[in-house]
Amino acid sequence: DEATAIEGDALVQYVADFVAGALTPTVKSEAIPEEHTVDGLTTLVGDSIKDLAFDEEKNVLIKFYAPWCGHCKSMAPDYAKVAKHFEDDAEIMIADFDATANDAPKEFKVEGFPTLYFKKKGSTTHEVCSAGRDFDGIKDYIEANRA
Questions:
Q1: Nearest to residue 121, comparing CAs of 146, 141, 88, 95?
Q2: Ramachandran class of 83: left when φ > 0, alpha when ψ lies in -120 to 50, beta otherwise
Q3: Considering only CA atoms, which of 15, 118, 136, 129 is closest in space to residue 79?
Q4: Pick from 129, 16, 107: which is nearest to 63 by CA?
Q5: Nearest to 117 by CA among 100, 141, 135, 84
Q6: How much is the pLDDT for 74?
Q7: In a 3-state reduction of DSSP, which class is residue 50?
Q8: CA–CA separation, 131 and 147 (whole Å)
Q9: Smallest Cα–Cα separation from 103: which of 13, 30, 31, 32?
């Protein structure tokens, strides 16, 4: 607690916990949505991405975006169309992650927007997705790379 005065013993304990790896990092996260998936599009947040995006039973495509990004806004209708296209396919998850309002796990290197990552079913490793940013490009990439 920031209001609590830092005393010597508390500081020593904090450093010991840090060295032991016993501290829990603070993760910036929007509230977990009551309904994760709407019209085939799953909303991931900082507190839910590990539980949902690393599901080995699914092929997972994640779009890391910024709400103010023009490229992201242009891509959004086609991305939503892809999500709707795969909505009834239980082996595919199409997900959005607002990278300005949530902390992404260290496995994801997001240096620009939008950034797409894809993970095959049976794996826990996400790879940067080189698909085009339109409906056909994304759909064809998923169909060619899914497990």
A1: 146
A2: alpha
A3: 136
A4: 129
A5: 141
A6: 97
A7: helix
A8: 16
A9: 30
Q: How far apart are CA 65 and CA 97, in angstroms?
A: 6
Amino acid letter, residue 20: A
Q: How far apart are CA 46 and CA 29, in angstroms?
A: 4
Q: Tell me the three state secondary structure of residue 11.
A: helix
pLDDT at 9: 84
Q: Which helix (H) or strand (E) holds 92?
A: strand 92-98
Structure tokens at 46: 């900082």
Q: What is the distance between the alpha carbons of residues 26 and 65, in angstroms, rounded to a whole number? A: 21
In the prediction, which pLDDT does 26 show?
A: 87
Write out the chain's pLDDT in tens, 147 residues: 455 667 788 888 888 998 998 998 889 999 999 999 999 999 999 999 999 999 999 999 999 999 999 999 999 999 999 999 999 999 999 999 999 999 999 999 999 999 999 999 999 999 999 999 999 999 999 999 999
